[in-house]
Amino acid sequence: MEEGVAVKHEGKNIDIKQEKQDNLESFKYDFDSGSQDSSKSGSGGYQRWAPNLNGVRKSAFTPYKSVQCTALTNLQRGNTQARVPELPQPDCSFHAKAGRGEITREDVKLEQYVDITDEHGLTALHWAASYGQLNSCQDLVWSGANVNMRGPEGETALHLAAAGGHHEVVKFLLNEGADADIQDDSGSTALMYAAAADFPYTCNELLIRGADLTLTNDYDQDAYTLTTTNNCKLAQTVIENFLIGCLSKM
C-alpha cells in the first residue's frame, strides 16, 4: 500500500502518511526528552536520569547499559579462552590502612616513628581522623601519635575530623589534648570547618570544650558568619543557643 492513501478503519478515515509522520515526531520527542543531562532541568520536570556518562544517547538502538562480558558469560558462550580479570590490589601502606580502619597495635609497633608522614606530608592520624576511624585514632594516639601535629597546610587531625563531622573522633581528640583553637594556613579552626559544613553535634562538642567563637580566618569570617553564608541552619542554631546560654550566665 502506498503512502498518502487513506484507509477506513472502524468507521474512520486514516491517512497513513500523516500517521507515520506523527509517530516519527512522537519518537523524536521521546528520544530528545530522555536524553537530557541529569544535571539540567527540562520544561517537563527536574533532574532526568542520564543514560550514559555524557547524557547523550546517540541511537535508539544503543542500550542504556553497556554489555560487560565476564569470564563466566564468555565460558557460557563457548569461549574457553576467557581470561579472568586481575583485581586491583588494595593499598596496604601504613597510612591507607589507618584511613580504612584496618590498622592494629602491631602495625604501629612495626613503624619506627608513629608520626611518619606520607608523600603529601600527612600522618596516619591525619588519615584516620579524616575518615572517622575512631579505633585507628585510639591505637595511634595511645601509641604516642602527636594529636596537634600539623599537615602541609597547617591542618591537624582535629581539623580533618571536624570537617568530616566525625563527632566521636573529635571528642576523643579533645580528650587527648587536641587544641581546639589551632588555625591552619588559611586561619580556619576546627569549629569553622564544622560550622561551614553544618555539623551541629561537632560544633556543640567544640563549643563546650572552649573553642573560641571570636577567631576569624584570612577572609575575615568567624564560625557564625560561615553558618549564615553557607545557609547552615543546624550549626547556626547550635551557636546561637550557645551564645544565649553564655549571656544568661552573665
TrEMBL record:
This is Ankyrin repeat family A protein 2. Residues 25-50 are annotated as: Disordered. The keyword Repeat applies. ANK repeats lie at residues 120-152, 153-185, 186-218. Keywords: ANK repeat, Repeat. InterPro entries: Ankyrin_rpt (IPR002110), Ankyrin_rpt-contain_sf (IPR036770). It comes from Parnassius mnemosyne. It comes from the Eukaryota. The keyword Oxidoreductase does not apply. Pfam families: Ank_2.
